[in-house]
Write a structure and sequence with these properties.
The protein is of the alpha/beta class. Helices cover 32% and strands 24% of the residues. The chain has 7 helices and 13 strands. The strands form 3 sheets. The protein has a 6-stranded mixed β-sheet, with helices on both faces. Strands 4-3-2-7-8 form a 5-stranded mixed β-sheet. A two-stranded antiparallel sheet has the order 5-6. Helix 1 runs parallel beside helix 2, helix 3 packs across helix 7 and helix 4 packs parallel to helix 6. The termini are far apart.
Length: 271
Amino acid sequence: MTGNVTSIHPWPRTGMVVGHSHTTRPAAAVDPEPVAVDLGSAHLRIWLGAGGVLSVPVGQSLRTSVVRRGRIVDGSACAAELRRLLREHRTPVPVGALVVACRPVLATAADQEAARRVLTAVFAPSRLLFVDSVRAGAIGAGAAAGTLLLADVGAQLTEVAVLEEGRVVAARRADVGTRDLNHAVTTAMLADTTAGLIRELRQEPALRPMISASLARGLIVVGDGATRPDLTARLVATLGASVHRAASPRTAALAGARLAAVAATRHPAAD
């Protein structure tokens, strides 16, 4: 891989004991551990604190996918897949937990409502919070501070966003991803699509200084596309900038949602 492509590592876990409470209240009064969920187009992933991470390929036992291009297309089947995944795990999910779920950037109100219905049916949460997947990816990659440009090249969706101190300032998305590479879409085309989304953002005068500054820092790439050296090399050549891959790019968004869930339980006023 080109020398202009480097890996970035997630935040250290210093001071964080996942799965254990630091409260002095009686055991019966301890709030249930939070849950993080990433309903991706390739995998449904759940973080259960001490229970670890559960993952199942989308539609593994079904004729059609339950999530397509970042959108839930069959809510009842999606809920059934999540319940099946949880049944196969030994630790039950406590009722009333805080749930933080990844949401594709620029998701519509209908898309979010579909996700809300599924997650409410499966987890019966006390609170349900959504975090943009690009923001979660930046947090999970340990790169949320400052101004940055992040690309999440997933299985069926490519998202690009400008973030300032962890907040999404502007974003673009395209309904194409690594699963399309077997259907007349080349890696070069996918990289060029990603670069094209960045050029669209750069056409907005107010964003140009931020994008220039973030490209000087280097493009952050998460998602399955970050695991493909030919794609990241093409981005380096096309953008004329360095590319930084998350150390665990496929699960960066879930890791970010996990950190957001832990933070929300400790600082509920900051939701």
